[in-house]
Amino acid sequence: MQCSPPGKDQHSYSVRRLENPPEINAEYGKEIWKNTSLITLDNYMGDRPDHFPVTEVKLRYDKDNIYVIFSVMDRYIRAVAKKTHGKVWEDSCVEFFFSPGTDVERGYFNIETNCKGVFLFAYHQGNGKSGFVSEDDCKRIRISHSLTRDVEEEYAEPENWIVEYSIPVSVLSNYLQVEDPGPGVSWRANFYKCADKTLHPHWLTWAPVDYPRPRFHLPEFFGRLEFK
């Protein structure tokens, strides 16, 4: 495992408010994202991978939604999962784990999305109960992806793929206690890139995870989202 040197606020990200909701269309260059700071996934778990895709993520929010966009400069791209809550982590996949408040012991969510926009969305409560977010609630997630080619067979050539989605805050309170986003509110979170079943597997992270083997379900290592 590799970690960046420790530093105050090193893994803290400011999430700025939007007045008008954006179109969810996987366009990384549109105005909303041009004016948004980015996170890069520079850490990894396990051995340093021979393929280390440049992975960026940006966030914004409004009174109703959290908006997320990932950009990945990738190779060896694969997408086999086709159903919601399928094994997307085995594909070329980006992941957003978050606790909707500062106390990770209350629980957390993980939304994992392959390069074709297929996702799983799960919750983990502090009492040990976990499960998938309901199909009805998943239908409220708006999601778009840029990759149009079929990559059920792994595609080795370089390609930049984008995934963009919005999560309604009202969905979250069906599963966990939520501190609604707003100025002065903090959440805990981490971002990941993986591709478990490709020929070049890797487990990249934003905030470092101090664990001897790849494992993302460790909320004690989450960074911070600071809503502005």
- The helix/strand series, from N terminus to C terminus, equals EHEEEEEEEEHEEHEEE
Helicity, in percent?
under 10%
> What fold name stands as the CATH topology?
Immunoglobulin-like
Q: What number of structural domains do the residues give?
A: 1
Rg from Cα: 16 Å
The biggest beta sheet reads: 14 strands, mixed
Known CATH architecture:
Sandwich
Mean pLDDT: 95
Return the CATH class. Mainly Beta
Commentary on this structure:
The chain is mainly β. The chain has a single domain (12-227), classed as Immunoglobulin-like (Sandwich). It has helices spanning 31-34, 135-138, 169-172; strands at residues 12-17, 39-40, 43-44, 54-61, 65-74, 93-99, 107-114, 119-125, 130-132, 142-145, 159-168, 186-194, 203-205, 223-227. Strands 1, 2, 3, 4, 5, 6, 7, 8, 9, 10, 11, 12, 13 and 14 form a 14-stranded mixed β-sheet that branches. A hairpin with a 3-residue loop joins β4 and β5 (65-74). It is globular and about 45 Å long.
